[in-house]
């Protein structure tokens, strides 16, 4: 019988490497719809006010390819927007839309910014991809100044069509059981969603993380089939049933 001093890697130790490989894959979608980006940018612009009263520092955390910042740029003129991502491929693409991009992570002080140095954080459809969202919100709170704005968006587990799908025994849209393929739900793209929130759960989670929730709104989803898009826009009037949740909170 032979022995070895090597220690087998556990599934837990393999997971971060596998997730990193997944998100570094240039075929994985990193952009979301312009309708969501525009609604979120309007909320942020209203909260920050015009740059004539002082330039604000806005961190677009998980900026992806920079398309959300491109949509928001006309509304945030005069403010300094910095794109942050840990995917080198995403940063390369984002540099075409943003004058400033930096690499950073959301755990263990991995964002390369001083405490309280940001006036606002855009956190657009990132939280659903995270293994440890608690530590991520701790890090966002660290870099925000007291009273600084958090603009968070994420898919809604309780979207109007997901309620019907669950009643029919179908896996909800946005939820995924594998990084390798679609199983049991509508859609064609695997995007790596690990967590999903209802409006109530999102409010409670953000509040428990040291933020004061200011407003919760809804936004449409660009992937809804064309015949249903008018209905999807109407559902935004009831955020709890909308496709996308838009949450504005301030650091307590």
From TrEMBL:
InterPro entries: SAM-dependent_MTases_sf. The keyword tRNA processing does not apply. Keywords: Methyltransferase, Transferase. It comes from the Bacteria. GO terms for biological process: antibiotic biosynthetic process; methylation. GO terms for molecular function: methyltransferase activity. Pfam families: Methyltransf_23 (PF13489). This is Putative S-adenosylmethionine-dependent methyltransferase. It comes from Streptomyces aurantiacus JA 4570.
